[in-house]
Specification:
By secondary structure, this protein is mostly helical. The chain has 21 helices and two strands. The longest helix has 33 residues, at 321-353.
């Protein structure tokens, strides 16, 4: 029941918002709506923490399994394992933060905004808990419509173009994954993860399955030549949209690798690993140099997200336990830090100055000291400084890449230097840069709402960076079992080939 409650509570909240909260004149009470939606997401967060507390880290099987037969002709299986529970925790943490981040800036069509956030939370939780690959694809695509509306309704000046870019890019890329899922269904006769993971497909079949799945996840990551949608979506979307995109949506490709690539197509994946590393290294270099030259705060953070996503994407595809664990840690850390940076640049600064151009800022340490300190810690996390979770995740991801292909690991390690260059360069221009330039008459420091959000994200980044064993201890068994199954399938293929040759 806990898992069903976790998913259905945000959907119940949408009905409550639509039906019950009207005043005597029939007009919606915006403050009551926001408080109600926030309370629902906070309760959902506590339910996810209870699930985490009751979770057995010593089991490789799915837990809290629930089976529903009421959706058409399909069965919906829900469950959690050691790989998915932390993505669920990240989703339930970011949902209330996304509502609070736009608490003052969105005062028109508030009902639709809150409903979109709650529906998105339920859809994302379903992606991380469903145990059927066809249902995974359906919920994977179900987030497109709410995000399309969120960007199109509440975005900036070029919001319609950005929403269509986002929808068409990600939808077209996912169609290739649908072809792979249909192929698996026709070969196996079902789409249940437990059953298809035990199937062993021919090498040429795995190649085609891998290509379809990889294209979909390459668009979602996104990698070089497929990242046009991300820049437009981040820059034009409202602050909550940018937070959800960076913290959760970009992690769908990370999670999808564990569910569809590693257990399903091990032979093809092993053969094409070096090509994937080349693509990720080019993405890191391209995104990093593009980040250095931009002068828009949200553009800079968006390009930075592309670079970090390429690092953890390569890390989990290294087939090394440290690389996989590091990829998960870096993905979670990126969710905290990128959300904080977007709230700082696209929220705190933009709400006060109505501009995202870095050149207009300078000397803010003199008028916004509390903001400067929290912003500095988030910037340290973004460039992977020690004592932050980003450092642990990036170090382990790069170790996994280096272990698999040394030359690719050396090139990917340039992200350490380049991320420090563009992050500290941005921080120096905004916070220092001489005396306060005076373009703006008055820039107040953080209020209680902004301070609370940034402090929560900073605390998670630092505490988990100092003591990452909170996550690593529970990840170790699940990742080891995943690699054991992976190696078993690979060795069985080698044994079969030797038998045929004899």
């Amino acid at each position: 029941m806990l898992l069903s409650s976790l998913i259905l509570l945000p959907l119940l909240g949408t009905f409550i918002i639509f039906i019950f909260y009207t005043d005597r004149n029939g007009e919606l009470n915006e403050k009551t709506l926001k408080v109600t939606a926030l309370l629902i997401t906070v309760v959902d967060l506590f339910i996810s923490l209870l699930i985490w507390f009751l979770f057995d880290n010593s089991s490789k099987h799915f837990q809290f399994v629930q089976e529903h037969y009421t959706v058409g002709h399909y069965d919906i299986y829900l469950g959690l394992d050691g790989l998915s529970i932390y993505f669920v925790l990240l989703t339930t943490l970011i949902a209330p933060i996304s509502i609070i981040s736009n608490w003052k800036s969105i005062n028109n069509k508030t009902t639709y905004f809150l409903v979109i956030i709650l529906v998105l939370e339920s859809a994302l939780l379903l992606i991380y808990t469903v145990l059927d690959i066809l249902m995974f694809y359906i919920f994977f695509e179900s987030i497109l419509a709410p995000l399309f509306i969120l960007i199109g309704f509440f975005g900036s000046t070029d919001k319609l173009r950005a929403s269509f870019y986002f929808f068409l890019y990600t939808f077209m890329g996912s169609l290739f994954m649908l072809l792979s899922i249909i192929t698996v269904s026709s070969l196996t006769g079902c789409t249940d993860m437990d059953i298809i993971y035990k199937s062993d497909y021919a090498y040429i079949t795995q190649v085609f399955l891998f290509m379809g799945i990889f294209i979909a996840f390459a668009v979602k990551t996104p990698v070089i030549f497929l990242n046009t949608w991300l820049l437009k979506a981040h820059v034009e979307s409202p602050l909550s949209g940018s937070v959800i995109l960076a913290a959760i949506v970009l992690k769908l490709s990370l999670y999808g690798v564990f569910r569809l690539i590693l257990p399903l197509v091990p032979k093809a994946f092993i053969f094409y690993t070096h090509i994937i590393f080349v693509i990720c290294v080019i993405t890191i270099l391209y995104a990093s140099f593009s980040t250095i030259r931009t002068i828009d705060v949200k553009e800079l953070i968006a390009y930075s997200s592309v670079s970090h996503a390429a690092v953890y994407f390569a890390g989990i595809l290294s087939n090394v336990i440290q690389g996989i664990q590091g990829g998960i840690l870096l993905g979670i850390a990126h969710g905290f830090v990128s959300s904080g940076l977007f709230i700082s640049g696209g929220g705190v600064l933009y709400d006060r100055s109505s501009t995202r151009t870095i050149n207009y800022y300078g000397g803010l340490a003199q008028v916004m000291p509390i903001f400067s300190v929290l912003f500095f810690i988030l910037c340290l996390g973004n460039c992977g400084a020690p004592l932050t979770l980003n450092f642990v995740g990036e170090f382990m991801s790069l170790y996994g890449i280096f272990e698999r292909l040394s030359f690719a690991g050396i090139l990917a390690s340039s992200s350490i230097v380049l991320s420090a260059v563009y992050t500290i360069f941005m921080f120096n221009r905004i916070i220092f840069g001489g005396i306060f330039k005076g373009w703006f008459t008055y820039l107040p420091d953080l209020n209680k709402r902004e301070y609370s959000i940034l402090l929560i994200l900073v605390i998670f980044t630092v505490i988990l960076g100092i003591y990452p064993s909170i996550i690593l201890d529970s990840l170790n068994y699940s990742v080891s079992c995943l690699l054991y199954n992976f190696e078993s399938l690979s060795l069985s293929d080698v044994t079969n080939n030797n038998a045929h040759s004899l």
